[in-house]
Design brief:
The protein folds into 4 domains: about 5-125, N Utilization Substance Protein A, Chain:P, domain 4 (2-Layer Sandwich); about 140-205, Nucleic acid-binding proteins (OB fold (Dihydrolipoamide Acetyltransferase, E2P), Beta Barrel); about 280-355, 2-Layer Sandwich (GMP Synthetase, Chain A, domain 3), CATH 3.30.300; about 365-485, Orthogonal Bundle (DNA polymerase, domain 1), CATH 1.10.150. With about 500 residues, it is α/β, with parallel strands linked by helices. The chain is built from 19 helices and 15 strands. The strands form 4 sheets. Strands 5-6-7-9-8 form a 5-stranded mixed beta barrel. It is elongated, with a radius of gyration of 48 Å. The termini are far apart.
Length: about 500
């Protein structure tokens, strides 16, 4: 028959949900601490609780050695001869237990110390039990009862243990009353926590998933599958669903007739908004759905490896697509698992214009590259904002004459210089054709042959070419002289030599 002390220990163990042997060990450790304090000794002490009588005996334990020379520490070792005076059956290498009287010697201080040791051991055992019980239940939905409120934290009773819900795991729309029963998610179990070790949440996405499984039979039986959930507790939740049966509408099943199913979930979440979206494997189509209620103009995949999308919306839809404080696009990005850049049509148009202007400016030719334009003329054009040949070629004579210091004669000079510059570019491209053809072992076109130097043609061809060239040069000289007479200017020396 068990003693009264052991029955008390057994009842305490059942109440705390721990092994009775853990409490017994705690009591024995407490007696060892109290005995050592009373005797002021460093001996190796051990205590034993008699289950039937309830008596606790303390012993000094020493190791038995054969010779006195082998005794290194008299507090921990004893010779065989000395040991057999206490226990005739002891052998070398065995342990000798020397009783230490405990009755009447444990005063009030020693008893208080023993009590503290027992409570500490019991608390440690209780924490280990709770940790082992709930560590495998992380992510599980449990029914909890509000036990008390400690500052911002709410303490729940979840059965064998208390749980704690910190502020960040609460929805801003919810408040709790003592004794209220709610569903919570076990999010983590803390082993070295001072307060309750089990941390629960009402803000976790798993709670919304559980509520849909409860309210929607098609989700419970697997016909409709929840592919992704993005949630900001107390604000909005986006949930992506897909149907495995082509005859079942996934979104319609979740909404229910007249919205009854989703309204039941919204009431459970105290009015939190819920967007139910049809899931698509194609990220472009999925992004268009995820950004609802905004209407998307187009979606472009910028980087498939890094999962980066660009979304363009109408100017009137930009604020709706971004949402309050960026909430809509933030939840959509979390739902997709992609980074999303949102731009309006106007922003995109400006971006394209900048890219085009940058492209044009990168291929522009400075005025200094055009032969025939003097430094003074280039300075006048640059002062007027004309810095490239392309910009100069686009200007009309009237626009050029509007520039200070440029008259009709200078306009003709500019026109001739620009035409000669572009003609030289075209001639350079044409000259490249026969070179490429020769490199490939092909015959050059007839036009290319006509442009070859005279030395490379036959004698007759050279005479004919020379005969044709003279009238052309004479005509050019006559034209220049006529122009000079009309303008009242003397021909340039170079022109006279020609």
């Amino acid at each position: 028959m068990a003693s009264e002390l052991y029955n008390t220990i057994d009842a305490l163990s059942r109440e705390k949900g721990i092994d009775p042997q853990i409490v017994v060990s705690a009591v024995e450790d407490a007696i060892v601490v109290a005995t050592r304090k009373y005797y002021k000794t460093q001996e190796n002490l051990r205590a034993h609780l008699d289950k039937e009588t309830g008596k606790i005996r303390a012993f000094a334990v020493k190791t038995v050695v054969e010779n006195p020379e082998q005794v290194e520490d008299p507090l921990l070792q004893v010779t065989l001869d000395e040991a057999r005076k206490v226990d005739p059956n002891v052998e070398v290498g065995g342990e000798l237990q020397i009783p230490k009287p405990t009755e009447g010697i444990l005063g009030r201080i020693a008893a208080q110390l023993a009590k503290q040791v027992i409570f500490q051991k019991v608390r440690e055992a209780e924490r280990d039990t709770v940790y082992n019980e709930y560590i495998g239940r992380v992510g599980e939905i449990v029914n909890a009862t509000v036990k008390r409120i400690e500052g911002p934290d709410v303490i729940f009773d979840v059965g064998k243990a208390e749980s704690r819900m910190p502020r960040k795991e609460q929805s801003r729309l919810e408040s709790f009353a003592m004794g209220e029963r709610v569903r919570v998610v076990i999010v983590r179990v803390e082993k070295a926590s001072k307060g309750p070790q089990v941390v629960v949440s009402r803000a976790a996405p798993e709670l919304v998933q559980h509520l849909f499984q409860t309210e929607v039979p098609e989700i419970y039986d697997g016909t409709v599958v929840i592919r992704a959930i993005a949630r900001e507790a107390g604000e909005r939740t986006k949930i992506a669903v897909m149907s495995k049966d082509k005859d079942v509408d996934a979104v319609g099943a979740c909404v229910g007739m007249k919205g009854m199913r989703v309204q039941s979930i919204i009431r459970e979440l105290r009015g939190e908004k819920i967007d139910i979206i049809e899931y698509h494997e194609d990220p472009v189509s999925f992004a268009e759905k995820a950004l609802q209620p905004a209407k998307v103009s187009r979606v472009t995949v910028l980087d498939g490896q890094d999962k980066h999308l660009e979304v363009v919306v109408d100017d009137s839809q930009l604020s709706l697509a971004i949402g309050k404080k960026g909430q809509n696009v933030r939840l959509a990005a979390k739902l997709l698992g992609w980074k999303i850049d949102i731009k309006s049509e106007e922003e995109k148009r400006q971006e394209v214009e900048q890219q085009m202007s940058a492209l044009v400016s990168s291929s522009a030719t400075p005025l200094e590259n055009v032969p025939g334009l003097g430094e003074g003329l280039i300075e006048k054009l640059t002062a007027a904002g004309v810095t490239t040949v392309e910009a100069l070629a686009d200007m009309t004579p009237e626009q050029l004459e509007a520039i200070e210091g440029i008259g009709p004669k200078t306009v003709e000079k500019i026109s001739l210089a620009v035409n000669n510059y572009f003609s030289s570019l075209e001639a350079g491209e044409a000259a490249a054709v026969p070179e490429e053809a020769a490199a490939e072992g092909q015959e050059a076109p007839a036009e290319a042959v006509a442009e070859q130097p005279l030395a490379e043609t036959s004698d007759n061809q050279a005479v004919e070419a020379a005969g044709e060239a003279e009238p052309v040069e004479a005509a050019a000289v006559e034209d220049i002289a006529a122009q000079a007479e009309e303008s009242g200017e003397e021909p340039a020396p170079s022109e006279e030599k020609q």
